[in-house]
């Protein structure tokens, strides 16, 4: 049986924004339930993100390791970043992140999958791209700062990443979802059957 998520919006009677940060904010909505009662729902308002699963010709994935303060861990991740500009083309943002974090460019881009990271408490939507035909980017490396200044890069076989995911040793959501989606695509209709890089994204509409 084929299933899919569908849009729906319950009536909101009041809204407040008790906190506004540099990139995100916290919003409180009073939402009318199906039985007519009203409840308060607090959630983080997020601009959205992109992530890149960069796969080289040897079947290795480009990963990076950086400190994530909220969880007090150094996590292995795939290149990712915020949609800094409302309506920004997510492909352009993904290409920028791959260049800035790894100094790599790719000739072939596809949409691997789209996810909501924590829909019970945040409206963040992430588009994960598959990037292939990799090469070193031209020009000088982008100057990173803060946590990214301590970043470590590696290329790891897909099978090793999958083992780490299932063993509970790798925890970054974009890496986990990206690796398992890649394996599903490879064992299904193949990577060339993935959606084109400019495929519509209702969660974060953009101009192609």
Structural features, described:
This protein has 208 residues and is α+β, with helices and mostly antiparallel strands. It has two domains: 12-45, no CATH class; 49-196, Nucleoside Triphosphate Pyrophosphohydrolase. It has helices at residues 90-102, 158-166, 173-187, and strands at residues 12-20, 25-32, 38-45, 49-54, 60-68, 73-77, 80-82, 104-116, 125-136, 152-157, 195-196. A five-stranded mixed sheet has the order 7-4-9-8-11. Strands 1-2-3 form a three-stranded antiparallel sheet, with no helix packed on it. Strands 6-5-10 form a three-stranded antiparallel sheet. The longest helix is centred in the last third of the chain and has 15 residues, at 173-187. The protein is globular.
Give a brief outline of the structure.
By secondary structure, the chain is α+β, with helices and mostly antiparallel strands. It folds into two domains: 12-45, no CATH class; 49-196, Alpha-Beta Complex (Nucleoside Triphosphate Pyrophosphohydrolase), CATH 3.90.79.10. The chain has helices at residues 90-102, 158-166, 173-187; strands spanning 12-20, 25-32, 38-45, 49-54, 60-68, 73-77, 80-82, 104-116, 125-136, 152-157, 195-196.
